[in-house]
## 1
Amino acid sequence: MADERLLIKQAKQGDMEAFHELVESSKLNVYRLAFDMLRNRHDAEDVSQDVFLQAYRSLDKFRGDAKWSTWLYRITVNTCLDRNKSAMRKALDYREDIGSDGPTEISRQPHDAVLPDRSAESTLIQGHVERALGCLSTQERTVFVLRHYHDLSLKQIAESLSVAEGTVKSYLFRAVQRLQRELAFYRTDLGLENER
Amino acid sequence: MTCEQCKNLFVEAYYKELVERDKKEFEQHLAGCRTCPAAFKEFEQTLALMARRAPATPDEKFSANLWNSLKSKIANDQAPAPRRILNLTPRVPKITSMPAWAYGIAAMLFVALGIYLGKHYFTGTPGLNKERTEESLTSAPPTVDSLSGDAVQKEVDAYLDRSRTLLLGLIHSPDTHLSAENFATQQQVSRELIQQASLIESKLKEPDRERFKQLIGDLTVILRELANYSNESGVPLIEIVRQGVDTKSIMLKINLEQIRSFGARLRAEQAKKSSEPKSKI
């Protein structure tokens, strides 16, 4: 792939091929983040399209201070929130909702989302992990997914979500604590007891 | 470093985001603490387990179609607004597009017209109006000798004023049939006006007086019907007059001519004033 900055510059000048390259290089990550947040394949696909469309419309506003991927993640998170505004927007108010660490209405629902493809040997682990993820509140899950599966640093997550780095750290710590509790029942199944 | 402070650094420690100073203190605490190493190990195990989650993979169809779908949406964004192919709505000039000064002039014209009409039709007491009407109707027409220059215009104005008074009296009459005395007076006045009109017409030779000639011709038609009216026709006189006045828009034409005449007199007076030599100081 050509230099990302160069592609962005060309795309800003109306070069559709350059923008196509940018889409191809980041579509998988955008889709995965959308899926991790919404836990639904169709919604994730719709959101992915919306994200790139918004990115194209807002190319002029991209100053290059943040990475292209960070900027896209920010759009993705916001688009996902807009999609589930009624249930998620309320839950994902990082500035006010420090005291709330319970799972959201969405995450309390039985996990009937289509799970990602997986090999037969990891079916058991996948099931437990997905269920544990489903028990996180939306804010915890978003932060956890961005850090753990999309490799954004705490600082980048804070930038993406427009919150303080300390807030991100706090949510992440609580997310891991909750995951520990959720997975404690399956420790034997998961072979964790032996490692302890 | 306390155990609580140590636990607060678990996240950064696991993701290797500890700053150098914190990293040293963290490692020192773990080395000397009995509980924190186990807690950190459990923390690591949980995250390691979560890392075994297989990432979501989109459908091949989605991956293949994303760009095409996106491209068409972007094209729709950039397409100009659809043009109206056939507009059957008649084009009506927008009143709102008129400049503000046009509204001002229109308002002033309306006010001037209102003042003029009010002054001529609605002022004074009924008794005075009656007196004025009778005076107007019975006043003798000016002689031909007196008509010269501005005198022609004055004669025209007097003729129009007298004709208008006569016609207004008839068309606004509450009775369909006139009394014999009133009818005789109206016929007498009509004949005088017809004579006056023929005198004026002979003086109106300038091309810009054609408008007056046209109006006088229309008025004469009505006045002749009035002068030659006999009850044998069966049609009330007032109806004949009303119809003639309405059909030829006589009142509107008289009003317009009087407004023009008034304007012309004003201009003439101003011109006269401006041409007078200024008094010496």
## 2
Amino acid sequence: MTVLTSGPRLLAARLIRRNRGAQARRGWILSGCFGAMIVALGLRFQPEWSTTFNALKRHLPMAALALVVVTAVVVARHRAAVRADFAKSWLAALPVPPGIARRESLRIELWPAAAGIAAATVLMSLTLVVFAASRDGDVTGALLVWGWLTGACILGAVASYAIPQPKIVDLPPGSRYVPKGVPMRGRVLRPSLSALSRWPVRRMFAQANPKLVARALMPVLLMMGLGSMADTAMVVIGIFVSVGSLTLLIPSVIAVTGEALRWAAPLPLPPVTLLRLCLGRGLAWVFGASAMTGFLLTVMDFTVAAAIRAAVTLAMLCTAVILLGVWRRYVART
Amino acid sequence: MSGSFALEIRSLSAGYGERVVLEDISLTLAPGEWYVLLGPNGSGKSTLLDCVVGRLRVARGDINIAGHSLRAAPFESRRRLGYGCAPETLPALLTARQCLEVHAAAKQLTAIEDDLLVLADELKFMAYLEAFVDTLSLGTRQKLSILLALVGNPSLIVLDEAFNGLDPASALVVKRHLRSRLQHRGAALLLATHALDIVEHHADRAAVLIDGRLKREWQKDEIGALRRDGQNFESSLAQTIGLR
């Protein structure tokens, strides 16, 4: 008989990861390392980035305190969600020795803090490598920042046990956040494919849970310097809204196209028509949001040329990601 | 000759990747016929339906719907097909009205048939027309799925576990409607289910699928004899699958 040593939840998670294959995992790790490398290079070679780094170093105790609070809240919420999920899990009724169950719970519940420390460590290691390769850079400063931030994560994780456990509420169906059109009650049913073109944008709205959006906006506003004008804040919020909508729209268009191809497979509808419908309004949104971002950048004292360049780059990047994702779904279906 | 069948499957084999799920299936459905597909979980019923509706590419064999090959004439064959998908695969962010309108437009209808609206009314579904699919209960989604399958007066109706989650009154309304549609419009119905009472009371023919092969078929007269003798279908099925 095999003796359970790591706890059933961790074992199940490991088996699921193995079933999904190493390729997806490798992709995530490589993307993470690539992103960290970009940041490390930016810290060394981009003057603006090193200015931000120096500002962080100057206000290290304050930043660490903020990180303690954020980590405590995130870990406490994660713990509450994990416990609520586990109560409904297929593994809930398994007999597990108390010692193993305790260790397993700790590892699962402290995961956000561990991930934060791991990310900071990877970033610091790569930064040190870049500094060493260029024989320049503030090594002591990097180690100091890493030490403070790691310590803050650990303190935050401990503090999470001291704050009251937040109540987890089941999210309502996504359609609650979708803007409702003119009521059609009593109108005759008219054959029309137009609903398909609205589907991706609706999914974008469905994912924009107001609470999550507010939480995402808060750090953006906190990052603004003291003494900023209200009109600057409005422009920043505007840019946040247009870029945020694109962040939600891209996966929505890709996912909806896949779902639509599957749902409409038994219908006499050419795939090209379906793709046109799913992409049309989504791409129109991409161009609109990019143009809006460009306009808002001009309000923030960017030159018109720089704003146009930023808007065109944003639109092209989003369009390329959408087309690539949709193409992969289309090939997978056909 | 194939034009006289609502559905004709010849030597069909299909699977997922290397795994073969269906092997050498041949089956015909005449217009007006109610055909029930039975089988244990994982025997390949849903896979067979996926092949028939064109959601899964077949490895070998042919499928003709109302005389049109699914491979050679996909649009003609799909125009004559009505498929009731699993309720959880309906698009969550469309309203019930929009689902019906999309199906009708895809089948190039100018309006939705009156008898479908009558059925929707009998099922007390009209009140949910403006509701998003993700707010509907399982039974209401099941009703929508059945209504979508009936849009455009299809020659072949394919339903997968369509009576799951339906209340008894609604299930009765649907069964009566399907029987009337089969009798008066010459449509054929292919229904995958675990409910043996449907075979006993409604089916014209039935078959059991085991390990991807059609193990046995019950013809109209055999089912008729069971009904006449007051026997239940369960014992006949138990014999076939080797249960004592």
